[in-house]
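Lab meeting notes turned into a lecture example. A postdoc, R.K., suggested we walk through two folding results consecutively so the class can see how the record format repeats. The first protein's sequence and structure tokens come next.
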Amino acid sequence: MSAAAPFAGGAVALAAAIRRGEESARRVAEVVLEEIAGADDLLHCFNAVTSEEALRAADAVDVAVAAGRDPGPLCGVPVALKDNLCTRGVPTTCSSRILEGWRPPYDATVVSRLRKAGAVIVGKTNLDEFAMGSSTENSANGPTRNPWDTSRVPGGSSGGSAAAVAAGLVPLALGSDTGGSIRQPASLCGVVGLKPTYGLVSRYGLVAFASSLDQIGPFALRVEDAAALLEVIAGHDPADSTSLAGEVPPLAPEVGRSPAGLRVGVVADFLVDASPACADAVRRGADALVAAGAAVEDVAIPELLHGLSAYYLIAPAEASSNLARYDGVRYGLRVDADDVATMNARTRSKGFGAEVKRRIMLGTYVLSAGYYDAYYAQAQRVRTLIMDAFRRAYERFDVLLAPTSPSVAFPIGAKSDPLEMYLSDLFTIPSNLAGHPAVSVPFALGEENLPVGVQVLAPALGEPAMLRVAGALERAAAPDARGPVRPHGAGAGR
């Protein structure tokens, strides 16, 4: 039986079927676990599969349904978690040797909310080490492969989550997005990936990369399912000092609403740096929105092109501070030595991979005396300019339209130059710097029949309008541009 079969109608429909007793949460979990076992040796989406815990959770859902109780909005729906989300008693490694064997004593807030909503957590997904990368090649556990073409990357850093959803192994997954790490792999894998407004989703229990940029968000095959998952994990959390106060409005109903009357700006500056297929998808998406009643026009926001430079000063600076805690004393790996300083140096040298070391050194440099003002402080001023540019744009437009990625999925090993890899996030980084929401919607097939996502950007707390536009794009998209796909060695797999 195909893993796609139990949730062919989507996660929301699956939850409703289990709630009505038409489907068994246990059967769905068994099918999903069987499919993961059959496909993951090739794809390597998962760092850990929690089979026993998943089956216990599924049985609890079935018992509740049989007793006439509602287990929650995600009743029995299997969900995968990026392996930087603390999960009580389950190894949480961030795909790094330095956290080998560490089992958190608590759940991240989003994990607790998933459990409360009746979701069945099936495992932890692979990522670029400490979420630093755009291809999921920087994992200490080896790369994840794109199910559309297993010789290619799934994007990153949340590549394991994106690939698991794209291959139909799970209907929903969580990732984290610091500079595009949900949206870029969503585009490369032909799934929906949503980065919420900064503070809308608690970061408590997310292993920090860059604390002013990190945000947790959903992957799904459908926009409605992503919105439903966001409703579950969003909301104020007193354990996170950056968590926004106030109630979260219903979001899933917005997906079916017409975009008629909305003002949409196409970020023309980005189209120049996108591949022809990616730029064409944005233009065709804009045409579809016009046909649906939206007002669309090009807008120039050249300040956004400076986001990449600012990000690669701010994010490493915050990373160098956050990763100082991994010293061989409190967490994971320890390489013994005759004195504490040598032990600390040896542990970090062996425990961290090349990309993490690169960013720690860069971040430490830009925060050092004599260079702070020239680099870090200047990057923060550029960040302010980007936020001001967005503010002016959103005075004219409700949402913005742009490519998600400059290209389709590239071959594993093709981008050995770090700068070339960093350019993968050119179109996604500005939303992180501003703290704004954005979503990638699979829209078309590009080179080599690989998926292309179109990105919808919105101002802070602009998720309702953003989801209206995302739903309209999904309805106008090429039907074969999204998963699930069966793992395929070259070219697109259906």
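The second example is placed directly after the first for contrast:
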Amino acid sequence: MKIALLSEKYTPDLGGLAISAGRLGQSLDSAGIEVRVFAPTVSLPASEKQIRRQGRVSVTRFGAHKRVDDTLVDWFELIVEEHQKEPFDLIQAYFLPQAGFVAAYAGKFLNLPSVVSIRGNDIERAVFDPGKFSHGLYALQNASAVTTNASALAAKAKAFVDREITLIPNGVDAEHFKPLEKNKRLAEALGINIESDSLLSNNVGQIPRLQSKVIGFVGELRKKKGLRTLLNAYAQASKGQPLTLLIVGEVRKGDDQKFLDEFQKAHSQFPIIVTGYIPHKDLPAYYSLIDVFVHPSLRDGMPNAILEALACEKTVIATPVGGAPDLIEDGKNGHFVNVNAVDELSNKILETLNRPQAAIQKSARETIINRFTLEKELQANLAIYKRLGVAQ
């Protein structure tokens, strides 16, 4: 069985879409399915191709054009050309307007089943873009099957088309993402004091070094992820006790980075650590340092970072958007705060730090083990293929 997997991003690209597409490719490969990935990139000249293997998965990247329609033409023609050389049994796309459109169109043209997966921004924002709306609608109407990773996204898709939308939640490797002792060496390298209050020597004498609790965010921090709410709530909570904000990843360049720079100048007494890109395999050590994981998104799909944090037995504070309500039961395995609610988030951070969390943290990991494993995600996708008449 051979699958063409289309995605606008694929690991090691940044972002949840790349991680999710990479996870699917690896899972299918582990099940004995041949996977060929096709993804546009701005790092190559327009139309130029580069083929590399990531494990046993073949990844074809091709240069994107300045004009989206030219990129879509190349994408479609590349799938047709490769199918003629070595036929595919099925075309699957992650993300609705562009990858989904090409997959559904190529599927009908080549008389192949196509599966399109709604991931978040595609139905939350892209459908409001006139240039993308028709592509997204075509994909919803013409794909052989449509899946999504969050109940809220399925409901939004059904507002456009009256058809079955299959819910396949993201999975996480709970053997890799698991509770760990705090990595003291990493904390020291980052300048975080996770030890009890102590004295720190300098060239003047000794000064108090206060233990700092760590508020953590993992991923690319930007406006959509609640950048302003997070920073303002952190500053407010820091007035109550020593805190450090650890951003494991990057802040999006442009207005978001500018806001962070201005914030740090105005609040230089509150430490903020931005690690830059961290390989996915290295993330558990960073999760080990986090006392409270915060994810105050304005809108979202099913964030991989929340899944990872739950698997690592971290107390999660999130907003009830996208797939978060599928993951979190407020007060049982995590906490919810309203969108853009700075005071509420600040108070919840302090409340969480100063109340026992063992029961919530244990329930967090149990949620992952029982419902959000890699195997469950794989089997749900295989069931779709079987239903479409594609079998190994």
